[in-house]
Amino acid sequence: MDADTNDLLTRLAADEERLVFEGFDEDDAWRLGSLLVERARAAGLPVAIAIRRNGQRLFHAALPGSVADHDHWLQSKMNVVDRFGHSSYLVGTQWSAGGGNFDVDARVDPRTHAAHGGAFPVRVRGVGVVGAVAVSGLPQADDHALVVDTLTEFLAGR
């Protein structure tokens, strides 16, 4: 594994350890989703956004320029979080760094599971992963960065 990939994996894992909620309810989903929308609108980003907890979609927004296919990607990336308990970007990067092909080797349906950046676990301290927040519409590193940057701001304000 090259140094850049190793650094990326280290950063992705550190983000997951750092971005943990004390609790997560419907109001939190609304506030977090609204902050994501605000940030995406300010930058003119053509994204779709979703937040779910325990299988229930608590927030969804489709901004100008997003397309229906983004909803499929949101769901597929969140399915990876549900299955593996980590961000879709971390899972995909781990597979490629290990020389594997997620779509072939992960033993999940590639039509319903996408290990591409943009979905991040909603982890509650003392509980574990209870859901996911996802963005789709940009290159995977940018989808992931939008979620992580917004989560960082959101959790710092609590």
Characterise this structure.
The protein is of the alpha+beta class. It has helices spanning 3-18, 26-42, 68-84, 88-97, 102-105, 140-156; strands spanning 48-53, 56-62, 119-124, 128-136. The protein contains 6 helices and 4 strands; from the N terminus they run H-H-E-E-H-H-H-E-E-H. The model has no long low-confidence stretch (mean pLDDT 96). It has one domain (3-156): Haem-degrading domain (Beta-Lactamase), CATH 3.30.450. It has a 4-stranded antiparallel β-sheet. 51% of the residues lie in helices and 18% in strands.
List the quaternary state of the chains. single chain
Question: What is the CATH superfamily label?
Answer: Haem-degrading domain
| General shape | globular
Overall residue-averaged pLDDT value: 96
Helix and strand pattern: HHEEHHHEEH
Overall number of strands = 4
Distance between the termini: 38 Å
Provide the gyration radius in Å.
15 Å
How are strands sequenced across the largest beta sheet?
2-1-4-3
The CATH class name reads Alpha Beta
* The CATH topology: Beta-Lactamase
What is the number of independent domains? 1
CATH architecture: 2-Layer Sandwich
- Percentage beta strand: 15-25%
Give the biggest sheet: 4 strands, antiparallel
Helix content: 40-55%
Instruction: Kindly name the structural category.
Output: alpha+beta
Spans of at least 5 consecutive residues whose pLDDT stays below 50 are none
Total DSSP helices: 6
